Predict the structure.
Amino acid sequence: MTTNSQENKLIDKFGRRVDYVRLSVTDRCDFRCVYCMTEGMTFLPRDQVLSLEELFQVAQAFTELGVKKIRLTGGEPMVRTDVMSLIEQMGTLPGLEELLLTTNGAQLEKYATRLKAAGVNRINVSVDSLDAERFKRISRVGKLESVLEGIEAAREAGFDRIRLNAVIMRGYNDDEVLNLTNYAVEREIDIAFIEEMPLGITSHHDREETTCSNDWVRDVIEQKYELDSTISRTAGPSKYFQIAGKASRIGFISPVSHNFCEDCNRVRVTVEGRLLLCLGNEHSIDLRAILRDSFAGQTELKQAIIDSMELKPERHYFYDKEHPQPVRMMNMTGG
Ligand code: SAM
Ligand code: SF4
């Protein structure tokens, strides 16, 4: 990745500058986490999914418009056939300063070194429990051992930062907040706690009963660790604290209990090529139609992205009964 002086052309009507894209490379996954998917999930037919070439064209268009940070997500990015070739190609994009990956970690043991060599700077690995039985209850099919081996492989590969992601659910893993934090602290990696979001319709559990607020999670952590608020940092819906005297940072991603929409700097692209302007709203444009239009090229693609900024809503309304809730599942959204 090389830097360039590309001016950012993506400013919405509320004056927010978009410089961060979360790009979903597949809706498929080898896990079926209860908060993310249904058990008998059906996935998109291949022709509806952007090809690796189309995904690259989208990434290129965004970087040419001044985007500096792209996170690859899904579904599980590492289950997409030949995803490494896309990642290696993206690693060469001029202007892209940060290439990031969110993964369930199950395949990191195999790919960590190649990902680092391809230019991936940072990795987030989701792990909601350190107990194998519970881990299976939450992920339905995942094996904890493979994820922990993946985390070790990522540490050995030497990424700038590794961050664990944990969704805390009452009755599932709410007694593991400190265990998970200790695990991160011992390994000198970061950990973020994500509030469960009401995305998609899942009859598996009642989210209003399982959702734990991050204020509660923070209280639990502060029983053992001092969080240094002088070096806290805010990015979108996340707030980070340094753990006093330790190398690890703690993030609280609180889209439900705290609304940080006024600082929102991001958009998402689903694997069908839908450019979503907000996680909690349906405002979107269809990039796939442009990518597959033989009369359109990169210029039209970029213009459509610039024009879409007009559609970015001011905020989301999670759990607000006055407003419709999103029907997308998280794997479709690009978490
Ligand atoms: N498969 C990868 C993984 O699990 O990290 C990447 C995709 S996953 C959709 C991205 C993140 O979204 C994960 O950390 C996951 O825990 C989180 N997630 C999924 N569904 C969620 C929900 N309903 N509320 C909050 N976070 C969710
Ligand atoms: Fe798969 Fe990630 Fe969703 Fe779990 S959270 S089902 S690992 S996409």
Notes: The pocket of iron/sulfur cluster (ligand 2) is lined by residues 29, 31-33, 36-37, 74-76, 104, 126, 139, 330-331 (CB under 6 Å). The mean pLDDT is 89. The two ends are 24 Å apart (CA to CA). The chain has one domain: 20-333.
